[in-house]
Structure formats: C-alpha cells, structure tokens
UniProtKB/TrEMBL annotation:
Protein's name according to its UniProt entry: DAGKc domain-containing protein
DAGKc domain span: 70-221
Example of a GO biological process term: ceramide metabolic process
Origin superkingdom: Eukaryota
Molecular function terms, GO-annotated: ceramide kinase activity
SMART domains referenced in this protein's UniProt entry, alphabetically: DAGKc
Gene3D superfamilies in the record: 2.60.200.40, Probable inorganic polyphosphate/atp-NAD kinase, domain 1
InterPro entries noted in UniProt: ATP-NAD_kinase_N, CERK_C, CERK_PH, Diacylglycerol_kinase_cat_dom, Lipid_Phosphate_FormReg, NAD/diacylglycerol_kinase_sf
Record-linked Pfam families: CERK_C, DAGK_cat, PH_CERK
GO (cellular component) term, any one: membrane
Amino acid sequence: IISVREEEENSSRRRGDGSWKKIKEREGKDLLYVERCRRHRWRCAEVTFTCSEEALCHHWVITLLFSSAGRPKHLLVYINPYGGKQQGKRIYEQKVAPLFALAGIFTHVFVTQHANYARDHLRTEAELKKFDGVVCVGGDGMFSEIIHGLIWRTQIDIGVDPNCPDEILLPSSLRIGIIPAGSTDCICFATVGTNDPVTSALHIIVGDSQPMDVCSVHHNNMFLRYSVSLLGYGFYGDVLTDSERKRWMGPARYDLSGVKMFLSHHYYEGTVSYLPASDIVGTPRDAARCRSGYVRAERYEMDDSDTEWRTIRGKFLAINAASMSCACPRTPKGLSPAAHLADGTTDLILVRKCSRFDFLRHLLRHTNKDDQFDLTFVEVHRVRHFRFTPRHCQSDSDLELDLRENGKHQIFSQICRDHPACGCTPAYSSWNCDGEILNHTAIDVRVHCQLIKLFARGIEEPTVFEDFTNPCAI
Ligand SMILES: CCCCCCCCCCCCC/C=C/[C@@H](O)[C@H](CO)NC(=O)CCCCCCCCCCCCCCC
Ligand SMILES: Nc1ncnc2c1ncn2[C@@H]1O[C@H](COP(=O)(O)OP(=O)(O)OP(=O)(O)O)[C@@H](O)[C@H]1O
Ligand SMILES: [Ca+2]
C-alpha cells in the first residue's frame, strides 16, 4: 500500500462483490496500492472502499498505516542531468516526485553540477542523520558515486582506514535507491528485474531492502575504487575506454565501441591469482538464479586461512569479475547468470585467446539460452579475493621463467610490446570498474559481503505474482 486518503467527493459508482467496494461515498477511503505488471514492472493503482461502521473503517486505516514500518520518510536525492539520454531531471520530476509526495516522503533534492558532486557531498557535507536513505537518479556511474561517498564516510566516521586492504568495512545504515536514467542501468536491472523509474520509486516507497556485496580494489595498499557489478580487463576495459570518447552518442556508444573492439581482437598477457570461495551455496554454472528472498543468513567476513591460492598465467581476451549477474537490457541473463547479489563472492570469468569466431560464439551466448561458459577457452571460478598482474609488470624472475618456458617467441613478443608502432597487440588494457576506468592495471580485489543495502527486493519469480487478468499486465 502506498497511501490511504480520505475521500472527499460524493459520487456513486457500480457496486462490486466482496468487502472491497469500488464505490465513492462520503466516508470512502482512497487506497493507492502497488499492482504487479509484466516483466517485473510495478504500477500504482487506486481503489476506493467504504465501510458501514466508521470505527471499523478507522481501525482498518490505522492497521494499514502500521504496516509502513521500515519505510523511508526522509530521502536525500541526487539527480544527474547528463546521464543516459539526459532525461534524469524530467524522469524524476514527472514520474517519481509525485509518487513520493503521495506517499508522504520528504525529499531534499540536489541536481549535480559536475561529476563527483554527489560523492563529495556525501563524503563531507551531507547531514546523513536526517535521512533514511539516498536516491540517485542516473546510471551505474551515479550509483557508483553514491556508494563511494557513503562507504567512505561511514569508515572515516568510525575510524576504519579505507586504504588498508585488510580492514573489515562497516556497512552504512542508509539504504540506496536507484531511479534508472543511465545507459546500462545494470545494477537497477539486476536488483529489481527491470529498468523502469516508476517501479524503482515504488520499491523505495514500500521500503524494500536488498543487501549487496561490494568489492574493494587496491593497488599496492592504495585504495582505488569499489565495484558492485563488473570489473573487466581486456574486452570490456577497451570498450569503455573507446566509448568514453563517444559520450555524445548516448547509450549507442557502447554498441559501436563493442563492434570496434570485437574487430580489434586484442589479447593481453598476465597472471591471475585467486582464492576460491569455499563453503558456498551453488556454483557459477548452476541453472538456479539469484531470486528475491535469497540472502545469506547474515553478513559475515570469511576466514580464508584454510584455503589455498591458485594461479593462472596466460593470454586473455577478457578477464571479468561479476559480483552479481550484471543482467541488463543488452544481456537479460547477465555476464554471470548464476551470480548472487549478497553471497560474499564474485565470479571470475577468464576468456583465453581464441579466434574471432569463437569469441563471437561466446558473446552471442549472452543473448540466448546457451551456456557462455561451456567453451574450452572460457573458465569461471567463484572467488572471494583475486589479484591480477599484467605481464609487463611481472617481476624479473617471473619474466625469466616465461622465457625458459616459452623460448624465443617470448623475446620477439617483448620487442613488439616495446615498439607498439609495429601494430601488434598492445601490452596492456585498462580495468573497467562499474563503468569507470582504473588508473592501475595491477590490482588486488576483495569481496565485502553485504556491505550496502538497496531499496529493492531482488528479482521475483514471475509465475507466482503476475496477474494476467489485470489490463496493465497485457
Ligand atoms: C553479437 C552480440 C553480442 C552481444 C553481447 C552482449 C554482451 C553485453 C554485456 C554487457 C555487460 C554489462 C555489464 C555492466 C557493466 C556496467 O558496470 C558498466 C557501467 O554501466 N557498463 C559498461 O561498462 C558498458 C559495457 C557495455 C558493453 C557492450 C558490449 C557490446 C558488445 C557488442 C559486440 C558485437 C560484436 C559484433 C560482431 C559483428
Ligand atoms: N552534473 C554532471 N555533469 C557531468 N557529469 C556528471 C554530472 N553528474 C554526474 N556526472 C557523471 O556522469 C557519469 C555518468 O553518469 P550516469 O551513470 O548517470 O550515466 P551513464 O554513464 O549514461 O549510464 P551508465 O553508467 O548506466 O552507463 C558518472 O560518472 C557521473 O560521475
Ligand atoms: Ca556476489
């Protein structure tokens, strides 16, 4: 239920059956409620009910209002006017603000003036005690600003050093809402099931709560960034680097850069070390999906002392870590369809050097029912902690070992790397960290189980809830 209002009009309508009567009378109450529609979308619907006894009616209203425990009353809202198709402000004003007003939510709205405005405001100025949650209107980049602001502020306030990779981070008490208005909207899509602003606003209003894992990324004990969706080196790093130059094109920039990078077919050498996640429910190859209600009993930090690190060296077209499915309109099942939002792990996907044709087969499988991991050049591991070192950063002893293992060929490829003008593959790519380029290629990544909470409930099983008798469901 979104809100209950006193009905002032005195009009009459056809009577229905049952106790909820669609008749407007003087004593009527207007009930605004959530109606489930197709493909995980929610809409606001209205019904007026009357009750012969005023006392009973009052009792109903009080009971309904008490069901509002856990709902936000005060929200801090940041709008990126330049995200996606630059519709953020319009979407918020026309579709979201009226719903918040109906639900009696007070908002303090900021339209961002530059990149990192929201992050810096949250880090230093925002009076967080006054709010129950933070809402961002924009894409994954805006969401990233919000978590960077909130996580940093929470750690500083309690004296945890965010630069220290071994620190156990403390969660913020504020939940985060996403009103999708970006180019990919993968975090919204993977936590709600759709990228629809009205649906997201309704999940915020009813006070849903979905915990989520966050990866911290460090380079030599220096904090770089947090990631909740994709950390991608090689293909997705190169697509992002190329697409940033085409920002003016809007969301289509990713497709154009995607085709360009697919044709470039660059591979990168390096070493990946990872700590496999033990004591986990499921594997990345499971048919089961992360669905609403699946949350590990409680937030916890793992004791990794018994588990052994594994190391893989090679030539990779892509190295991807998906901390959640990364489902989005481009790939409705996601980069790692069985990944979980809040299980304290990330799925490390290694795509080794292969032919263009094979890589295309792998990419195409993101869009159909076939398993994108069921290919000889692709492997996937569920991990809690991993490191990557590009080959040109490897220690001298590692390079010597490579030379002994691979002979003269290595010497020539080293010469090529030192002389990029010869047109061979570049020595290193960049990391795409939730849509931002990292400044370093050698990184150390740890998963922090359930570090943040969203106003969402995960993806619901559609068969249980869709009401096909309702016109909005058709
Ligand atoms: C042939 C069709 C193949 C379709 C393959 C679809 C795979 C799409 C995978 C998308 C994964 C998105 C993960 C989310 C990452 C976000 O944290 C981040 C911030 O918003 N978004 C991106 O980095 C934005 C990344 C956007 C990447 C788009 C890649 C498009 C690839 C197109 C390849 C075409 C080959 C055609 C050959 C003729
Ligand atoms: N006022 C502003 N002017 C310029 N850039 C901004 C402003 N406010 C936020 N930004 C930056 O814009 C970038 C993109 O924002 P956003 O994530 O909303 O859209 P997007 O990149 O189109 O979508 P997606 O991240 O889903 O691909 C973010 O990195 C954010 O830091
Ligand atoms: Ca996870």
